[in-house]
Amino acid sequence: MEKKKYQIETQCVQGTYQPGSGEPRVLPIVQSTTYKYEDSDVVAGLFDLTVDGHMYSRISNPTVSELEGKIALLEGGIGALAVSSGQSASMLSILNICREGDHVISSSTIYGGTFNLFNVSLRKLGIDVTFVNPEDSDEEILKAAKPNTKAIFGETIGNPGLSILDFEKFAKVAKKLDVPFIVDNTIATPYLCKPFELGANIIIHSTTKYTDGHATSVGGVIIDGGNFDWDNDKFPELVEPDESYHGIRYVEQFKESAYIVKARVQLLRDFGSAMSPFNAFLFNLGLETLHLRMERHSENALRLAEFLQNHGSVNWVNYPMLSNSKEYKRAQKYLPKGASGILTFGIKGGAESGKKLAKYLKLTSLVVHLGDARTSVLHPASTTHRQLSEAEQIASGVAPDLVRVSVGIENIQDIIEDFDQALKAVAKTI
Ligand SMILES: *Cc1c(COP(=O)(O)O)cnc(C)c1O
Hints:
The chain has helices spanning 8-14, 40-47, 62-75, 86-95, 112-124, 138-142, 167-177, 189-192, 236-239, 250-254, 258-271, 277-287, 290-309, 328-334, 350-360, 390-395, 412-428; strands spanning 79-83, 103-107, 128-132, 149-155, 181-184, 202-206, 220-224, 314-318, 342-347, 365-366, 376-378, 402-406. It is globular. It has 17 helices and 12 strands. Helices cover 39% and strands 13% of the residues. The chain is of the alpha/beta class. A 7-stranded mixed beta sheet has the order 1-7-6-5-4-2-3, with helices on both faces. Helix 8 links the parallel strand 5 (181-184) and strand 6. Bound molecules: pyridoxal-5'-phosphate. Pyridoxal-5'-phosphate is lined by residues 85-87, 111, 113-114, 155, 159, 184, 186-187, 206, 208-209, 218, 220. Pyridoxal-5'-phosphate binds next to helix 4 and helix 5.
């Protein structure tokens, strides 16, 4: 890919799309399920995966492919697979290498939806997940390993606890176990953090969040670092013939792309959670300003965090870039350009006040979403995390008084004034 030589800002804008003379300058939406061929041999070649091209949009589509190319470029991976949601990306990232009887180690400070997927739905399929405290030592984490452990999973910036993943430690454990290190890089985005440079082997994103950036579309992506040797006796499905695909051997035929090719031609074929071309168009459009947005989200979040820290109605503030944060050192190390737009704070008056706050905010709206250009708030204990037990809530970093803010890219003074007046109004009611 020639565009590798450009800096990330240029890659965000230009991606891999290179129109020929007279072709649309803007990435076109190819809203077609199907592709016409003159010759059956070409279709046979497409089926055999010996010819590049599109056959049916559940498996691949030209608009979606350009998005995949851009995200792979941004993350520094060798290939990507776009899917219908972030949940689908995390599910397929595991199912691609685990079957009934296998085991995964996961950090406990992960997104609530991923926690449920691992804790409930994967278990129903016979895949066992052990959650570890990510602050435990590498020896401690290694104790969770079993002979059938097939992956270790973590989030760059844990949502909503805002713990920063200790990449060095997790990569070391993964190396020791000879299993892939899978990282959810949704909150950081490749503009702020490049997990492949820190030992990750597979990256996933909910593109619904900062990739989109405007809260228009649900989507996800899996990116392959091409830096894991699957031929180590732990992953026979990548090495031995796939009988569901007339005996194809992924590692032999696709070398370092084995994982991402298998995810597409086997799992996307069978489970069908494909991304629509129109959504891919919107995600690509979002990525064109990712670098500008992430810079401003990070700057605004730090300014709001500093303001809230000195507010009379606030018990505590958690933002990794605050110099008194326990994550500050790690944030400096892994997120030198900024810590993204999510911050949390404890509101005086606890859960009751947390629930009330949204009513008094004017500019800021209550949504369960994050990563939007517009500032939003959420009280997780009474909303997104209500399906978890209190112990599970606390294990995933949710206290009863915790308010999560997804700081947008509006004028920071306007954002600060909105929180100031709302916090004062809530204080009068308690
Ligand atoms: C939202 C989110 C997901 C799930 O993504 P969907 O697109 O909502 O399915 C996964 N991981 C993180 C960190 C998220 O914020």
